[in-house]
Amino acid sequence: MTLFVNDLTVIDFSFFCPQRGPVGESWIVDLTLDGDLNDESMLLDFGLVKKQIKGIIDSSVDHTLAVPTKANIDILQGDDKVTLESNFGDNNEHHFAMSGPKQAVCLIDAPSINEQVVTEYLVAEITPQLPENVKGITLTLRAEQHQSFYYHYSHGLKKHDGNCQRIVHGHRSTLGVWLDGMAMPSVQKQWAQRWADIYLVSEEDVVEAAHLQDISAAPGDICSRYHANQGEFELAISAKRTEVLPCDTTVECIADYMAKQIKQAYPDKQVEVRAYEGVGKGAIGYA
Fold this sequence. Notes:
By secondary structure, the protein is α+β, with helices and mostly antiparallel strands. The chain has helices spanning 46-60, 115-126, 185-194, 251-265, and strands at 2-17, 21-35, 65-68, 74-77, 81-88, 94-101, 105-108, 134-143, 150-155, 169-179, 182-183, 198-202, 206-207, 221-228, 231-238, 242-245, 271-276, 282-286. It has a single domain (2-172, 199-244), classed as 6-pyruvoyl tetrahydropterin synthase/QueD (Tetrahydropterin Synthase, Chain A), CATH 3.30.479.10. 41% of the residues are buried. Belongs to the PTPS family. QueD subfamily.
């Protein structure tokens, strides 16, 4: 017997790439389970699928920075903290360093992060926690099929009570731009290129390199540091891969920021920006 659940959840996270640095990503999760019927004539109650299996995914990968431990990245783990440092780019021209609570990072034994690697990691995490009548599990991770331009962004929200406070997690997000009610794909493309693989940081979280305690910055880095409910977070990343916003980096503020920026270029137009945070959710900004 086979049970399937499409669109079980969406994994919103970032992963470290030796070429691209931290990359915000959003993958939709489809699931199938194989096995025998239990005493309730079910393979597994749908409520348990959504609660138990989704819970494992949420607690292991979602809203983390996934790090390939076999890549060229220095990893130092303490009792409750992890620090990372690496250079990235075609010629290792960019620098990245981060520190934070251990639950903010997902360490995966692989040279790089992709759908197959994360799938294998999650299957290994989920399988031991399934009931005996479930004999096999198949996960499919897939990106949303966008019909518009999109960008990958990473950020951290220190004011958030949940896992969004983790300083490097992210999303793969589409956007729409309208001027006086007319769609403007050329403007969408400009922003998608401007924010390809970007790290967005709030201006109030930016600090001088000397104020970092657990990591070191390189020349040309943007540094940020904050305390949140889960602990202390620090980041140093190449300024060429960063944009500093004069606001928080929630999707509401991102939509508003985009709209105001576009308004400066088109002062006689009514601007509408529809910014997504991953899949199927987001905010609309007007100017």
